[in-house]
What we know:
The chain is α/β, with parallel strands linked by helices. The protein has helices at about 40-50, 75-90, 100-115, 140-150, 160-175, 180-195, 200-210, 240-250, 270-280; strands at about 1-5, 10-15, 25-30, 50-55, 95-100, 120-125, 225-230, 255. It starts with a strand and ends with a helix.
Amino acid sequence: MEQMLAVNGIELCTETFGSPTDPPILLVGGMSASMDYWEDDFCAALAAGGRFVIRYDHRDTGRSTSWPPGEPGYTGRDMIADIPALLDAFGLDRAHVFGISMGAALAQCVAVLYPDRVATLILDETSPAFDGVPGLPPIGEELAEFFEAAAETTVPDPSDHEALVTMLVEDQRAFVPERFDEARMRAVVERSVRRTPDMRPSLANHHVMSDGEPVEATLADIAAPTLVIHGTRDPLFPIGHGEVLARGIPDARLLLLDGVGHEPPPPYAWDVVIPAILDHTA
């Protein structure tokens, strides 16, 4: 059941799975992504393993507070602060924090700025959040070409849901070079579009927000036990990004998912991912 929570002077839309008496896992989504990209069955499987799963719509996604397109009234530092504020709203001292892509960058910052709030850290399909980390491979050529072409593409009218869904599905396809499940992704995107009153802020604002006050840290400053999950076919953050994270964070463990792209763990990988997460958060 969805619940609107007052957080940092705004409202964030949340949904939970499982018993509040179980250890909590907070799921932090990627750029421009509502909580719908954390699929129901994935959340339910974690809950069945004895975890209290919390997912939420970022600012400017889903049903959370939004701003005019191109004019986000917040910074990246505000989105970092939303994470401990959400824990406060649920009455939680700390949680296991599981972020993907941009959400995993936010999670790294939370682990440094609010270490007492992070029981463990799970970083999926992401890159170091801090400056000055050497040895990171560049974006894949095909995805770079896609971004270049997309910059010249006109976004469909937000009232044309079918055209908008089709565009967003094709966007997702560019991030998943192997085993792209179009029907499954279309269902996810359709739900996200249906739940979002106006998709224009979602499509624009995370891309143009400023970082805000910088987080001065290194990977070695992350004290939380960390599991790094990375797909071997991620074109945005090629596998070297996950390897650098696992080497730089003390005692981090790296779980490679064969053939997986830049995406939340797909169902065919759940038999590996879910036990690994349950073990890590035990």
